[in-house]
Fold these 3 entries.
Entry 1:
Amino acid sequence: MSNPSILILAGDGIGPEVMAEVRKITDWFGERRGLRFDVSEDLVGGAAYDVHGVPLADATMKKAQAVDAVLLGAVGGPQYDDLDFAVKPERGLLRLRKEMDLFANLRPAQCFDALADFSSLKREVVAGLDIMIVRELTSGVYFGEPRGIFEEKGERVGINTQRYTEGEIERVARAAFELARKRQGRVCSMEKANVMESGILWREVVQAVHDADYPDIALSHMYADNGAMQLVRQPRQFDVIVTDNLFGDLLSDVAAMLTGSLGMLPSASLGAPMENGRPRALYEPVHGSAPDIAGQGKANPCACILSFAMALRYSFNEGTEADRLERAVEKVLADGVRTPDLMQAGDRAPVSTSEMGDAVIRALDAGL
Ligand code: IPM
Ligand code: MG
């Protein structure tokens, strides 16, 4: 049998730097754990635009459909701000999500004990925080039709459409319930059923899926605005949150900041199973391309490394190895190794992106 395949799309800004550290980690698993991957690389975002005039070439899209998992760094940068909407770097990412039908976006917000003081909230509110946000990723207002800027009665009108089918709600609800079964068994669904018909349908369908197949899970519903408030008031009340594309975009940024360390947060975007039983999957750090620090060795590679840990868990069924990698990252933090984004008064000098990668490798070696 051939090795599982990974396509790396490092993208723009700090993407290539943090991905270089992930390559060290994939090599380590090959050499030390016998987990060999066939790794190929291609362009996405501004890097693809510079070469192909589009943020994702058709040939790259085809490769992404053919591999077992895609690892993405980050897309975007100020030099692309004035580009036509259709060829902006972000469109490359949105095309991948849509055409791979990656409907379930898993965004864990976990507070590492060594970093609890970085949160904008008090340590006692965030210590031990472990939330999983499941964001619907392929529908809703991001993709709904009609959309556009039109002329109407002598002025322009901008239109986007929030649209969800029962099937789209059902499949992401199932993903959330399945995850909850492996966690604390609680799901909170968020919408705006008080003002949006799509929210009324969302609530009904999530409840129906629960009643039919997941009675063992404790399900609650919340309006998304209240959800945002509860997230900063008492975040530990949540286990799994399931919500739509736009609310999920906002709520996951809020949850990310609770942990205080955007440079630490991974994500997985999962679709339906392929022929080999693995889900279509793309893994990426939650942070962006950070053009202000790109190319200076200042970026924290941990979010990207932890995204690979999610790939081990969700694509390659290697939960034990994923735990191993997550423990190594936690150990490095507990030892006080810090990239510049994690510095506090009194800390020793920060390490570079590649020194952080090396420290994780040493922790992996020490854990064998
Ligand atoms: C995210 C980002 C994207 C989104 C952008 C870059 C298109 O904010 O992944 O959360 O809005 O989905
Ligand atoms: Mg976002």
Entry 2:
Amino acid sequence: MTFDIVTIFPAMVEAALAAGVVGRAIGRGTLAVTVHDLRGFTADRHHVVDDVPYGGGPGMVMKPEPWFRALDSIAAARPGRCHVVLTSPQGRPFTQAMAGELSRHEHLVLVCGRYEGIDERVRTRIDEEVSIGDYVLSGGELPALVMVDAVARLIPGVVGDEQSVIDESFSRGLLDFPHYTRPATLTAPARPGEDAGRESDTDAALTVPAVLLSGNHAAIRRWRKREAIARTLRRRPELLAAAALDDEEREILRELVAQGSKGVEDGRH
Ligand code: ADE
């Protein structure tokens, strides 16, 4: 899959892309990401990309011509259908389902806005406008990086263990179950003001649930399902209406609702 990202802060975007799973996928050639400096598509000596708004008011607006030139140049360099996404707080909220939709495009172009906004006429070249949340950032670079990361994970070969992508939060509309690694027990240092010898809720929270040490894979699988559903019920109950639950999970949900029970977060192992 190919991404083109257009920004006035190419160094910021490139630095983030070099790290972790995405950086390795780029290194292997599983992903191709090109970062374009919008200033390279200006025609004036000072590489100006913004101007005052018609009608007056505070702030600056990104000029249309550099964007048109940048998008034309990207289209010319990569023939074939590309999907152009503008990051903006006015866009459709980004979700895991949207990451899945975007991952089916061969070629994504991410347009990172700045200042008060982009000249409205640039929208004639935009296929989709996406927001990463109901808050305002100073530019579209972080949203573009969020999208590249979430989309790239869904491309076969990007994440080493594909099962972890299938299991993780939101892939089936559920939050993730709790994870543990060694050691099986931790000794909690007494908190300031706490009696060091006292048995506290922390002791239970610092012990790995016994089922995970049992070697009983069927029991572990069921425990994980139960914990994922309990956590979703507790933290994000609205997700359950759209979650793709199997028969066993629906049964677990009925039990949890009947018991008012919430899993390890309530100290129940
Ligand atoms: N640009 C500024 N804020 C944004 C947001 N919340 N999502 C996407 N792009 C943005």
Entry 3:
Amino acid sequence: MSGPNYTSRRSRLLRAIKTVGVDALLLSGESNVRYLTGFTGDSTWLYLSNAATVLISDSRYETQIGNECCGLDVDIRDARKPMSLAVADVVKKAKARQLGFEADHLTVAQHAALHDRIESAELVSTSGLTERLREVKDKWELVQIREAIYQAERGIGVVRSSLRPDQTERDIRFTLEAAMRSFGATGPGFEPIVGVGPTGALPHAHAGDRRVSESPILLIDWGAETHSGYRSDLTRVFVTGRITRQMRNVYDTVLKAQQKAIAAIKPGAKCKSVDAIARRVIANGGYEKYFGHGLGHGFGLDIHESVRMSPLSEQVLEPGMVITVEPGIYLPGRFGVRIEDDVLVTNAGHEVLTSVPREFDDAVVEFLA
Ligand code: ZN
Ligand code: ZN
């Protein structure tokens, strides 16, 4: 399959910037620059207007940009020339009057430097323009995301079949990361969360020294990153010993919340309404205050992207969006259960892209003697 059409992505962005009243945009967000040009390095900004498209970088990346972004104009700045001055020169030459910058990807210091150097144009704050384009994935991106899911799912298969009571959270993390790499991943899509019992009750815990045998509940939140930079994001809970009736009840409640929310995913559905469906199931089970985060999020080049599935999100689902659905219940000091799958919004409704079994019986792990 041929690669992404960067020219068409940039044309769509050029149309979008007109609606916010600027005639040029300065992109400093690394994933946005990658999305628009294919450049995989850092410290490189993109100037975009109808008159000019220029990557502003330094000599470390000259060859790489030539290889990855064939045909794009490049401004390679000298080590003694600050980025702000390089940008000012490009802006002056291209005769921009209103230059949009990415408020979400520019530090206060960087903004001040641009403000000092750029005299020929007015700086205008913008937010989410490229992120909005990135919400809807094209065919090529969907192939990459499916690949990242494949790598993650093969990886967890290795972890599961080699699980032992004496393994620590850290041991499992290493096994998982190595396994995903062996199936083609460049690495994990983010630092995997491996939590035994109380660790799993912290929604963003780090893998530590707790052993599998210390609790019958093990939570793993993981994903892979492909060579193309796309990611996957899943969570499963494994039952590794005798569990209490409450643990079973929590598992069933989370799964029911997730399945009901997934069933409601279709074009036109409001993100906050889908979130509310899961939240209601959890509240009816009596666990309302133990589900503090949003239901899910978009992902792709970044692990957390627009759209947001939360009680506050007015966003509406569209075909081509890929989102996680990940309700959870966390009982502090005891255990946590979260079940997370990756879902594509289709014209007809949705397709669940992830296929690791999620029923309770599938979660039960029998150790080999
Ligand atoms: Zn996750
Ligand atoms: Zn997630």
